[in-house]
Amino acid sequence: LSGINLSINSDDVTVIMGPNGAGKSIFLKILNGILTPTSGCITWNGKKQFSETLNTQAFVFQKPILLRRSVIANLDYIDRVLGYEQKINKDKLLEIVQLLKQKTQPARMLSLGEQQRLSLVRSLITRPNLLLLDEPTANLDPASTKIIEDIVLNLKMMGIKIIFVTHNILQAKRIADDIIFLNKGKMVEHLDKEEFFSNSKSIEVQNYLNGIL
């Protein structure tokens, strides 16, 4: 990444787009504190400290990372570690992502789409204000993709800020409110969705939307 300077102020869904190798995943990991920038800084609500923010955000990777336990045990573990006094109805969460019937099955025996839905619902156990999603629907079937997109839009309505990495143009049209476009580690544009798709001034964005870049 090089020379990126931007502010993300909306409470909606911010989508990060760009060709392979543009720096989308690196950018997301720096936002989350997984990676440390070699120069520059990131501030959250005017503060440079990550500690307070990390407790209020969750990260879902492209490849599901699950415990070698049952579906419900994956949720129970996070709930137990965090130790919240007010418990979440985990059966209700599993019902929302259509995994209640698989509650007692080994998590790693689920299909890829089901595993990703479990990863997403597990992240909600942390009660995040910010949810970072790194191509969570890559290589998923249309049915699982729709379920995840519906969940994302519902979470937005609940007041959870979403930052969503995707290379899927149609998906961005469905879920985005604003779009950050990266190419070769640099930010090309940051626009609201309507302007991005109808009035972008960047040749790189136009080439990307036309399947050239």
Query: Mind summarizing the main beta sheet?
Result: 6 strands, mixed
Shape: globular
Rg from Cα? 18 Å
- Helix percent reads 25-40%
What's the oligomerization state?
single chain
Q: Give the strand order, joined by hyphens, for the main sheet.
A: 2-3-4-1-5-6
Q: Could you tell me how far the N terminus lies from the C terminus, measured between alpha carbons in angstroms?
A: 18 Å
Q: Which percent range describes the beta-strand content?
A: 15-25%
**Residue windows where pLDDT falls under 50 for at least 5 positions:** none
Count the helices. How many? 9
Average residue-wise pLDDT: 91
Number of strands: 6
H-E string: EHHEHHHEHEHEEHH
Structural class: alpha/beta
